[in-house]
Write a structure and sequence with these properties.
mainly alpha, about 900 residues
Amino acid sequence: MTIEHAITAAPDRGAPVTMSKLSVPATPLRIVLRPRLLQRLDTACTGALTILSAPAGFGKTTLLAMWFAQKIQADGRVKAPNHAAIDQAQPTAIAWLSLDAADSDPARFWRYVFVALRRVLPDLPADLATPLRATPPNIERVVAELTATLAARAANVVLVLDDYHTISEPAVHHSLAALLERGPPGLHVVIAGQSDPPLPPALLGARDQPGAIHADDLRFNQAEIGLFLRQTIGLNISAETSAALAAATQGWPAATQLAALWLRAKPEAANPAVFNQAERYLLAFLAEKVIAHQSAEIQHFLLESAILDRMCPALCDYLSADTPAVAMRPAQELLFEIERNNLFLTSLEADGRWYMYHPIFRDFLQQELPRRQGPHAAVRLHRRAAAWFAAASADAPALLEEALHHAFAGHDNDVAADLILAHFDQLGAQGRIDQLIDWLNTLPEAILSARPALGLRYTWVLFLHGRREEAIRRLTVVAADPALHADCDPLTAALPYAIRAAIATSYHNEAGMRHNAEQAATLLPPGETIWTAMVAIAQGVAQFIRGETRSAAAVLHHAADLSDRAANSYSVMLSNWYLGRTYLELGRLEDAAQAFQRIGADGETLYAGYRDIGLAAIAYERDEPAGAQTLARCGLDALEAMAGEARMIIFARHLLARIASSDGDPSEAAVQLEQAEALARQGTMAEALAATRAMRADNAIKSGDLATARAWALTSGLDPDHPDLRREHELHTFAHLLMLRGRSEAALDILRLLRRTAAEQGRIPGVISCDLLRAQALARAGKAAAAAEVQAAARIQAHSIGHTRLIRAADSIPPAAEIRAVGTHLSSRLDSNPPNRPTNQGPLSEREARVLGLLAAGRSNREIAGDLIISLNTVKTHIKRIYEKLQVNNRVAAVEKARTLGMGRENKG
């Protein structure tokens, strides 16, 4: 089958875009030029809004296409979507969008507007459309950002919204009115439809204003009717007949065209009497006088193709292949003949691959179809069309939407269900969640129940849509269905476990992640990537929560690779988010930054908020508070606009609180923590709630409010004699409070346990944080020398991993005089000997510096290999080169010399 289409993917990887909706229609070969109306359009477009409002068949679209063609020909600076601009200096960008009923969805409407504008303004940021993917879409933010972006550009933009009368959703009208009221300079909107748009009167103005063109303006006058008939059928009629025709049709161009078709068949009928009552009996006239004069072949073709919103020759040939009673020529010949005969056929593209009938003509043909071919003809034809589009979608997945439209119209729910299932995983990976849910909601429950594989995937998109409780309920029902276990394929058998593992990940249910991921991994078929990636993410996050940081990094790195191969934007985000978080815990800032930057690296903007928040955390650790705050706020705004994961929003607010606290703004920190606590309480996230309250207590400590911190400690459930090491952040605050209340030994006991755990897990920043607090506790306990050594060692280790914030924190500790003396001595040796100080054998490489830092931390060769994800032999090679460069011959000597020179460095990145 030859597939001819004009569809591409939207820049934001949302639903596919039908490009014919974005192209200025071709003007008919024989057309009546209307200079008075073209001048009206030129005048109208000096304002912000132009309205073309008239019933169907009044030539609104033709007039606009003619106007555009004239401007292209006359002004080389005009830039339209299907024309190349000759001169780019201050061009007038012409963006066209033909609307239909499906565009009443606000997110779909604005997504098409963005694509239309980006076709003529390629530098328009793609991430402007990100809030459209939220649940619900944040339309207000979309309009505000589009207004600001257009206002910052010098280009003049004309946006045409054709067939606007098909829009029924008030939210679309309100948002468009908001855009027009904000009035970005240089933007002009042309709205064409069968009725005035329901916009505020202040925008519409008077009906006779220059920016409004209505039916009375569009009617043919007597001279134009005579010219039209001469050009269309080569018939010269008398002025009397022309006047009679104008009176009968009231200048309605569609009626005039119908009369021309009839007169071409019966030129002798060209007399005034013929046209009496023509408008009243227009449909009868069309049936009896126009269609009746077509050949049986053409009549049959018109009736059967009328069920199509658009058509191409291959589709029409397939549609008529099951009617052998009528001998049919190839569809391409018939379409050319119909177009040549002006039978209300419009070419959607310059090359004539796709066509559509005028809506009035198509509506009439659809009414005639059951009368002439029986009540079931439309169902039969819709099913044929569904089969063609379904087969074509194998090579062009964007045609799936039309396949399903015809399947539903043909009441063929089985075909619709099979189509959805066949494309489900791919569409889910593209983020087309709303579309999938709409289709699934159209299917009867019995169809879903008969297909466990589809029912399970329904639970998955409900989960992605934020409807978690509903997803869990449906999953419980589907997973208990005996049909699921009777005779299903390996992937379907694995899905309940894979989906449960993903749901458990969102709740940070470590046991649920581990159990379900293990079960799913044993059932997933080899080579499957989408669900294998989700399972690997669950395994990696479970290890991350358990503190198995090194192994979590390896598993999440694998999950990120799988997600890239599967082109699954959701799992790309999730795997790299947690991979970046893991690298942060390990102190590998450069690796963490690379992981966060992979979120949206392919142009995907939906999850850009997660990327920005991750990069904000990097900037914070590098002691760049201004950049960290900007990134964190942008990321938080994006996450809230798209109703992102609550746990990640809490992370962002915690980060903003830490930034505010480090900048000496406790009130802002308190605001961020209050909002984080409310969100954690709403989501019943006990761990996040406890961590937030501990941060509030920590802020109280820094403000000198020990009473508030003590009240927190009494209600926290923490036991200093039996500390729960899983509550690390709370225990850190608790130890700080104990120290300030004179219980330094108790604080030191807790900090030693926390430090040991962090060291065992390879979390170097955690080790440093414990050591910085230990230094203060030791000083308060009167152990000045020990405090000085711990403080200086923490500074060296922070320097080795590039954590500027921790270096500053070490420098800001106010030690006693003895501590200051020892610390200054050790720190000065570090500062005078940079970490990569050259030796007789040359400087250490970055990887050698990492290996040396791990040697200093007491890691074995095998542990170093695991940390850096390299082979054991490679570790040995690095160690040998380190010995040569430091001029030592064993591990102890290497570590000692590194400390002497200030060279110990676990990881620069």
